[in-house]
Design goal:
The protein has 2 domains: 179 residues, NAD(P)-binding Rossmann-like Domain (Rossmann fold); 87 residues, N-(1-d-carboxylethyl)-l-norvaline Dehydrogenase, domain 2. Helix 5 links the parallel strand 6 and strand 7. The longest helix has 29 residues. By secondary structure, it is α/β, with parallel strands linked by helices. The protein is 51% helix and 12% strand. Helix 10 runs antiparallel to helix 11.
C-alpha cells in the first residue's frame, strides 16, 4: 500500500512528541518536518552544535541520547551507518523501555533483525525499520519514499506521523523486509547506472550524440515495467517464454556487442557474462526460451 503523504499540519493537540537522534542533513530534515507539523520535537546529536538551527526553530535539545529518548514515546534514529546505531543504542540501554523505536539508518536486513531483537529485549513498545529513498530536500513531500517493516501495532499507532515524512509503504512484520526492498531497489539502480555510464563512454568514443541517445533511451524505458513484470512472473512460475526473442537469436548478437565495445576500449565484462550464460543455457537445450530463463543458472553460478 503506497499513498501520497498528507502534508497538512495537524493541531498541536494531535501531534505527539517525537525524538530524533542524529542531525546530519537527513536527520535535520526529518526533525524540521516534525516541527513543521506541530510535533514537540527533541533532538540529539553527538556534535551538539548541529542542533542549534533546530533549537532556533523550536526544538528541544538534549545533552545525551538517553535524555532525548526519555523525552518522547516515538524515537527516530537517522545516523550514518549501523555501527553508529549500535553505539547509540548501547548508550541508551533501558531508556527505550515503553517507547517505539524507528530506525531510518541504511543497513542490511540482518542488521534490522538484530535491532528488532535489541528493542524487544530492552522493553521497547515496538520496533520499525525504515529506509530512505530520496534526498533531504524532499523530506516532507511525496517525492521521497520510506519503506517500513516491523511491528504492525507500532506502525498503526504512528502511521499518520510517519506519513508526514513522505510516501510510505509498509512491507509487513518481518523486520528485515524494508531493508530487502531498499537493497534491491538501490542495487538495481546501480546496475543500470554503471551500465549507462559505460555506454556513454562507448558513445563518446564513437563521436555520437550523448544527449540525443539519452533522450531516445529514456523514451524506450516506457516498455520496461511490463517487461519486468512478465520476467518476474516467468521466474516465479519457472516457465520461460521467448521474452526479447529466443536465446538462439539473442546469442547471435553477443559477439558483435562484445567486439564493438572492446574495439573502442570499453569494458565488456557484463556482456561476456551474458554470453556465457546464454551459451550454457542453449547447450542445455533451452535455446527456445527467453532472457528470463538465465535466472535458472544464477543459483548454480553463486554456489560454484
Amino acid at each position: 500500500m503506497t499513498t501520497a503523504t498528507d502534508t497538512t499540519t495537524r493541531p498541536a493537540a494531535e501531534a505527539g512528541p517525537v525524538t530524533v537522534l542524529g542531525l546530519g542533513a537527513m536527520g535535520s530534515a526529518i526533525a524540521r518536518t516534525f516541527l513543521d507539523h506541530g510535533h514537540p520535537t527533541t533532538v540529539w546529536n553527538r556534535t551538539a552544535a548541529k542542533a542549534a538551527p533546530l533549537a532556533d526553530a523550536g526544538a528541544a535539545t538534549a545533552p545525551t541520547a538517553t535524555e532525548a529518548v526519555a523525552a518522547s514515546p516515538l524515537v527516530v534514529i537517522a545516523l550514518l551507518d549501523s555501527a553508529a546505531v549500535e553505539q547509540v543504542l548501547a548508550s541508551v540501554d533501558t531508556a527505550i523501555t515503553g517507547r517505539t523505536l524507528v530506525n531510518l539508518t541504511s543497513g542490511s536486513p540482518d542488521q534490522a533483525r538484530a535491532n528488532e531483537r535489541w528493542a524487544r529485549e530492552h522493553g521497547a513498545a515496538g520496533y520499525l525499520d525504515g529506509k530512505i529513498m530520496g534526498d533531504p530536500p524532499y523530506v516532507g513531500t511525496p517525492n521521497i519514499l520510506f519503506p517500513f517493516s516491523g511491528s504492525d501495532t507500532a506502525f498503526a499507532a504512528h502511521e499518520t506521523t510517519l506519513r508526514e515524512l513522505g510516501t510510505v509503504t509498509y512491507h509487513g512484520e518481518e523486520p528485515g523486509a524494508a531493508a530487502v526492498e531498499f537493497m534491491a531497489q538501490v542495487a538495481t539502480s546501480y546496475e543500470l547506472l554503471i551500465g549507462y555510464l559505460h555506454t556513454l563512454r562507448l558513445l563518446r568514443e564513437e563521436g555520437a550524440d550523448l544527449a540525443g541517445f539519452t533522450r531516445r533511451f529514456g523514451d524506450s524505458l516506457t516498455v520496461f515495467p511490463a517487461l519486468l513484470t512478465s520476467m518476474a512472473q516467468a521466474v516465479e512460475a519457472g516457465e520461460y517464454g521467448p521474452d526479447l526473442g529466443s536465446l538462439d537469436v539473442q546469442a547471435a548478437l553477443m559477439d558483435d556487442l562484445i567486439g564493438h565495445r572492446e574495439s573502442v576500449g570499453v569494458e565488456a565484462v557484463r556482456m561476456r557474462e551474458v554470453k556465457r550464460l546464454m551459451d550454457r543455457r542453449i547447450a542445455d537445450g533451452h535455446g527456445d526460451q527467453g532472457f528470463s530463463s538465465l535466472f535458472e543458472l544464477l543459483a548454480a553460478q553463486s554456489a560454484a
